[in-house]
Amino acid sequence: MTAPATTTWFDLLRHGEPDGGPKYRGHRDDPLSPLGWRQMHGAIGADDRWDHILTSPLLRCRAFAEQLAAERGLPCTVVDGFKEISFGAWEGLTTEQVAERFGDGQARFWSDPERHAPAGGEPILDFYRRIGEAWSHWRDALAGQRVLLVCHGGVIRMTLAHVMGLPPGRALGAFLVPYASRSRVRLDATDQGLLGCLVSHGVTESGS
């Protein structure tokens, strides 16, 4: 007799706008701006139901995740493995400043990120492996539950690369991930193995 499938749902929520405007942040620990807080609250509906919240340790994710968990009486786990990629010497700089200081390094990174890491930054293959380890652990540990993961654009891209079998360099530029956007992944553990599916991607508070 075939055993029933175990279904797990993950909602991947990117943080809202941080203080300080557009720049490379990576491991830089800037808090959310007032607009960022409004974006995050707007991304959550009264009908949303989760069993567990996971969050990056960085403040722009963690502060909202812990507040939401306290409001809804949910467990909240801070996972270091879901921290954003490190941009090394680029952190805290705008794209214009990186271009001025590092020449064509930025263009080379975005055209071929697997071969050209930012100066002093985390190689994307290392980042991909780090996210994969965190993802596989929590995917299995919370099997059968509805989970909210509050994290970063890069983390969402690498998670979807694992779910969809995409090379990390391609996934980095393949997905638009606006502030406070949500993506939903469904995982079914069946007799044929674990089947992962991207149900929705890039949904914002306006539904666009």
TrEMBL record:
SUPFAM superfamilies reported in the protein's UniProt record: Phosphoglycerate mutase-like (SSF53254)
MF (Gene Ontology): phosphatase activity
GO cellular component, one term: cytoplasm
Stretch forming the signal peptide: none
Pfam (any one): His_Phos_1
Tree of life domain: Bacteria
InterPro entries hit by this protein: His_Pase_superF_clade-1 (IPR013078), His_PPase_superfam (IPR029033), PGM_Phosphatase (IPR050275)
Name of protein: Histidine phosphatase family protein
